[in-house]
Amino acid sequence: FIKENGQTIEVEMMTQCEMMPYSDFDVACEDGCKIAGVQMVRKDFGLKDGKVGASSFIILPSKGTSALALLKQYKSLLNAVNDARLVNSKVDLIMPKFKFTCGGSVQSTFVPLGLQSFFEQRATQIFDDAEPFEDVIHKVAIALDE
Fold first, then answer.
1. pTM (2 decimals)?
2. Which of 11, 31, 69, 99 fits a 20 to 30 Å CA distance from 135?
3. 87-118 burial, b for 16+ CB within 10 Å, e for fewer?
4. CA distance 93 to 108
5. 31-50: per-residue pLDDT in tens?
């Protein structure tokens, strides 16, 4: 990979060649000029009994398109993604292996939904021998390693 500052970095890659939903399209800036070509595939995970457990959309700039230029047109990119028609195609997918984690408190989301009692003394009325929760943490981890 070549970073914006011109520095080259090496990363471990994964490859996959199979039929998957695919589309390529252009993204226009808000005044209508073309700024980037985009390729998108839908990668399905957790197939069980013919049903998909989860999907991710992998959106990559076409060769010669700056990822930074694409991200600067985030709203236009989202509109183009929503309008894209995916066609089942043979795709040679080569991309870096990665691991991503994020998480944090969801208390600020729960309280407006009426769940403030979990964080107050009244939690003991909901659960036997319960202490009020100090916080609720939600964490997500995604590892893509073939």
1. 0.55
2. 99
3. eeeebebeeeeeeeeeeeeebeebeeeeeeeb
4. 39
5. 666 667 788 888 877 677 77
